[in-house]
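Appendix B. Extra example for self-study. Work through it before the problem class; the solution is given directly after the inputs so you can check yourself.
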Amino acid sequence: MSKSLQDNRQWNGWGDKEKSLALTPDGATFITETLGSVKPLPVATLDEVLAKVPESRLDESELYTLDTEVRLRHARGQSLPDWLAMKSGEFNLFPDAVAFPRSSEDIRILMAEAKAKGWQLIPYGGGTSVVGHITPCVGDKPVLTVSMSKMNRLIDIDRIDQIATFGAGVKGPFLESQLQAQGFTLGHFPQSFELSTLGGWVVTRSSGQQSLGYGRIENLFAGGEIETFEGKVDIPTLPASSAGPDWRQLVLGSEGHLGILTEVKVRVSRLPEEEYFGVAFMPNWEQGIACAREAIQQGLPLSMLRVSNSVETRTQLYLSATQTQRHWLAKLLSLKGVSDDKCMLVYGITGDKQANKQSYKRLKAVISQFKGVNTGQRLGKKWAHKRFAFPYLRETLWQMGYAIDTLETATNWSNIAPLTQKIEQSLREGLAECDTADDSKSKVHVFSHLSHLYSDGASIYTTYLFPVSDSYDETYTRWQKLKSTTSMLIVESNGTISHQHGVGSDHAAYLIEEKGERVVNSLQSYFRSFDPEGQLNPGKLFKAIPTETIQKLTKPDQ
Amino acid sequence: MSKSLQDNRQWNGWGDKEKSLALTPDGATFITETLGSVKPLPVATLDEVLAKVPESRLDESELYTLDTEVRLRHARGQSLPDWLAMKSGEFNLFPDAVAFPRSSEDIRILMAEAKAKGWQLIPYGGGTSVVGHITPCVGDKPVLTVSMSKMNRLIDIDRIDQIATFGAGVKGPFLESQLQAQGFTLGHFPQSFELSTLGGWVVTRSSGQQSLGYGRIENLFAGGEIETFEGKVDIPTLPASSAGPDWRQLVLGSEGHLGILTEVKVRVSRLPEEEYFGVAFMPNWEQGIACAREAIQQGLPLSMLRVSNSVETRTQLYLSATQTQRHWLAKLLSLKGVSDDKCMLVYGITGDKQANKQSYKRLKAVISQFKGVNTGQRLGKKWAHKRFAFPYLRETLWQMGYAIDTLETATNWSNIAPLTQKIEQSLREGLAECDTADDSKSKVHVFSHLSHLYSDGASIYTTYLFPVSDSYDETYTRWQKLKSTTSMLIVESNGTISHQHGVGSDHAAYLIEEKGERVVNSLQSYFRSFDPEGQLNPGKLFKAIPTETIQKLTKPDQ
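Solution. Structure tokens for the complete assembly:
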């Protein structure tokens, strides 16, 4: 039953197995010329991996399935370590069972069992985490993964309050189609939109591509219900309150530590009268940043603004445009003074037609002020068409022998250019010491864009590609080197360890540098008061800290 | 030294003692006809109260002053119980000393002393709390009130990041004049603006009149520094983050329980090209609510929208317009079909001139859609001129024998009309059982407006006036009856116990109904982990709960 639903899902990579994103011939040449030709690593077959799944430590039960393939399919997310595990077949970690609850009552029963028997409990949404949110943790406790996939109904739309209630396991497309059929939208479009779930968006503090217009999930999450080890907690849908700390803010980013979010109430908007995306080219990265900052600080009512740096722009054009198209674009832009360092700026305009006209006029003025060239909606349509397709490129590149991953952060405007430069340099030079024998293998192709803008800063989203090594182990080691060095650099340079992906296990080590030890320990203790034995998604968000430290922190009078 | 600075401050009431707000003769008649003539209660003199201030339980020290008048002037806020205490002279509670630190270093020293010696510590901003935030708590611990009045400097404006850093004790006018001189504004204008402080706004989750445009303090508070019993905690100014729960959200609404906020960094906006306020009249309350909801859910970019119900509208017109003005307004409106039930709607339009034009046009269309009559800017200017003056009316009415207080909440749109009706009825009939002998004394004049709007709901701000009784005690008893019955009704009817005033001591009893016992206890335990002995502003935000309960909650393994 549960298997058939997942049949279209790639078992060892991203997304729908029927879908793919091919490179243009030019794109393939560009990548190969940039990173050298590489021999891909061998990929394990499903049968090989199935044979390696160990016996479950749990007994048969009606509450969950012990089916080997189901366990395998819920063992890993989409982080690079997850990806290497899936491709090599060395999963190592599997849940002992997977439950598919259909109601809050089912979840209460599962939680009571888990609590009584000391199991680890991992809430599972779309399985799209890129930072290890749903990967089981090493340990002697049996692991029960709770898939929310059956709790995906639209429960209610209140047209007066503009609040919609969904089962937390609802995925992006189903959520939007239900809302749009009734004239509303949530407007939350993370790149993982096709697969990720509303509950996952909330507990990881996700952000959609159009957060500039619709707000981050913090703004959209109105309330709902969460099942804890001590029973259900109702989160009221107050539009605003000054009655002490806002508890919703502790659910947001809790990453499973409070319990399982079952129903989520969200603030929806009416469908806009008009929405379109357009593209401009700025003469260079500095002007691109300045243009974005000016637009936002002027308070221009856009729904999106992204600026790619010149390497990202060049890469994108190679990957998605033909030589003729690139030629004519270059010609057009150079006539207007924008040439080799050009930076692509993608904007979204959403709302009332008359207001949109005004916004568009003002945006064009800002683009001109910073010597950019607006090319209008043609390329914007192309962007919108492919907005959720980029993750499929990972497979295409993998088959060519390249690993691809991303790092993202947010920081204040004055730190944007320096921090981007540091991040890119750290990645680009991060493998320089490896492979002195084979220089080609130390190459890393790095590019960035600003994806989410705020009055006081922006997010930086950096993509990096590097050739796989001769073995999975060595590839992992190289990734780890790039990831750890650059992550530490980010938090030491006033960036957040994550603007939109969350903490999971991969970022847990950096949280203390960002928030300070006292704050991190206090938050961990807070969650422990809901989960005394640390059974809820252990090893995520926080590094394991010794039990005696927790006890000390939570016993105020000693 | 500290005394001279406060010389202009009313010692037993609101604001600047040179300022007042007189009633028009018609206004006075209206109130008297509505509530009957009353004999005011006698008001204690400053000398009488000074004679009652008990000896301090603290020794002389350079760290603070024991001056009797200074202690008296920091003993009470502006809640109705505070007001009755100040007018009767029965303060009962005084801080034992008041400190005026000039630096974070000073605060560290004060906190170390307080911690070592077991004092209560009350952070004091503008002393404008209307819910008992700064009133000392009964108990055997000496009370040190820490006035932030000397830590009020503009420390930095970062023009690139649009972040300004202030000492937490800065008051509204000084903050805005400093920012506006440099082309920026915070845009945070609570009614207490003239006296309240930035630090106070943050720790009580305050909201300004134009939060629709500029955001609540949650949106404006970027970071800063807080001194805790365990040292300083830096709160980084990240524009956004998905790295676990956002700790700023635990500072917001902490009401002194974490420590003392010393430096506050805020997100500022550029001064708008144009700003104006206008007034329209809607035919009745239902149409007023519907118009406000439509404007907000359409996403109209206004900086303010308030709608008074018909009693508030009538009262306002009596209090502020002449008979001739009222006559002509009534004539004009009735020609357009708006008559006795008319509801005043005040709007604020802020921004780029061209965009404003568009917003104004759209707003007028919405007003027409709901059969309202827009009268333009004339009355809007009048509103803006008096926007911070209303609290001075309390003194004027007091001298006539009337007590005035407010209750405020927020709830979802579908609950706005029913909840307003319940609140008003509860207040209007709340004294019906008292004074059967003297029926006039059971009258309560009640009116409401929506002051802050959100896509999913609005705040309801209800004002009530009632005649004082023959004694202060009886007046207090009557107030308590109105307050407690109506507060419980609010939280039982899906309203928050406070949209903008905070919890303090007056609302602490209702928090559990709103957030649930588990959540409230967990938050209290959280703060206790920063303040094991409960020395920081005790009795505020949370009801005192038995120490053994706290211990149980914070010892996860028992």
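Self-check: Chain B has five domains: 2-9+43-147, 154-270, 274-385, 390-492, 516-554. If your reasoning did not lead you there, revisit section 3.
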